Amino acid sequence: MPLVRIDALPAGTDRLDALGRAVHDALVETIDIPPNDLFQVLTSHDGSTSTLRYADFLDVPRDDDVVFVAITMRAGRPPEVKQAMYRRISELVEKYAGTDPRNVLVTVTENASPDWSFGHGLAQYLQSVGSLERPSMARGSAELLAEDLLDGGCGDRVVAGAGLREDL
Amino acid sequence: MPLVRIDALPAGTDRLDALGRAVHDALVETIDIPPNDLFQVLTSHDGSTSTLRYADFLDVPRDDDVVFVAITMRAGRPPEVKQAMYRRISELVEKYAGTDPRNVLVTVTENASPDWSFGHGLAQYLQSVGSLERPSMARGSAELLAEDLLDGGCGDRVVAGAGLREDL
Amino acid sequence: MPLVRIDALPAGTDRLDALGRAVHDALVETIDIPPNDLFQVLTSHDGSTSTLRYADFLDVPRDDDVVFVAITMRAGRPPEVKQAMYRRISELVEKYAGTDPRNVLVTVTENASPDWSFGHGLAQYLQSVGSLERPSMARGSAELLAEDLLDGGCGDRVVAGAGLREDL
After folding, report:
1. Which residues of chain A have a CB within 8 Å of the CB of C113?
2. What tens digit of pLDDT does each residue of B28-78 get?
3. Shortest CA distance from B9: residue in chain C
4. What is the CATH number of the domain that holds A64?
5. Which of A66, A93, A111 is the last residue of a domain?
6. Complex ipTM, two decimals?
7. Do C107 and C136 reside in the same domain of the chain?
8. How close, in Å, is residue B163 to chain C by CA atoms?
9. Secondary structure in 3-state letters for chain A
């Protein structure tokens, strides 16, 4: 589910790949998504036709190794989970790509269950088991939405696993 | 109003154009926007300096025809409208660009009326008819915001049409 | 804190730079961020491998000078502040880059304090002064979140300044 955009200044394919793996592994470890829940847009900017601009906000000394990570995911993760996610991203970005943690900006934008379609034109997070085969048993989307608010939109592993066997 | 980002792997101009038309036609048909409400950023990634990464989340077998569609629009569309939008996007992407619906990821991020400026430095969704010519008749932005919450931020056609004749 | 994406059609480095400066100066003037709070992704699209699509929504006559500005920032700025921001962006984009205000689209997406990490793997907006050195004095993230809701997520200058001296 997270859609992740990673922007860096001129980076070879290897560095781009390392950045992508670092962020993804960190998400799998910290926000409870399955390893195959991978949707990334990785961009290396050449510095002329496209570029990044940055300064030393909060006195953090950034340089051209700067990496911007923008994560869109469902609402519900508490602040401490996000904090753990940031920490792990910075650790793995350093480990895999050699990028100093001071150069890693991360921002999160949240949405809700109806805001995702993972293919086949379906809103999978709104599908219940068997809803396609047996419409009479399908729960209303309002009910599922209510559940989503209650559980904070998390537990992707469960919902995804449940919906997938019969719905797809 | 929707700002739509479409990301694909190496795609000729024709495919990029087809993807853009497919998504736009689907939005016009399903979320009640006028045909000229078109704002898209279309990007074909070469796979080296920029690329997409994906896996088989929910057992959907994706391949390099994968397309990521990220839609930013005002809040208020109910889940069933979004479901219809996903379905129509996948149908038209297949029809116009020959892309299998399993390869289409769509995600929505919502904002509100004050979050849009369509040129001239104005927040058009906050302008009422004649507000520029006759400031004393302009309704407060709080009032318009309240309306927006009530009507769910939809009905763009009406609001836009009303604001446009005198405001621009 | 704002992460700003600016997309334009073929633009030399000079125009891209001017657009970036225009938007940033406008934000500093209107939404109370310090000048070094700068995080931008600037992209010039060549019109073939990547491009922008637009029409005349709200009867605004756009052309290939069109600029899309997408701002992600913390929630809390009232509509009149956003209106002032749009106005100033359009003025400075015209002044610095010669781009007519009719060609400037701006959209805002909001998030919250826990949604930002400015390096070092920290969620800086959740850190209180001295929280790293003296954990027992650190206020809980729930408390800081509550404050954030109360103050509308603004006052970046203060929070940032307070957190920075001891935390980084």
Report:
1. 79
2. 999 999 999 999 999 999 999 999 999 999 999 999 999 999 999 999 999
3. C49
4. 3.30.429.10
5. A111
6. 0.81
7. no
8. 8
9. CCEEEEEECCCCHHHHHHHHHHHHHHHHHHCCCCCCCCEEEEEECCCCCEEEEECCHHHCCCCCCCEEEEEEEECCCCHHHHHHHHHHHHHHHHHHHCCCHHHEEEEEEEECHHHEECCCCCCHHHCCCCCCCCHHHCCCHHHHHHHHHHCCCCCHHHHHHHHHHHHC
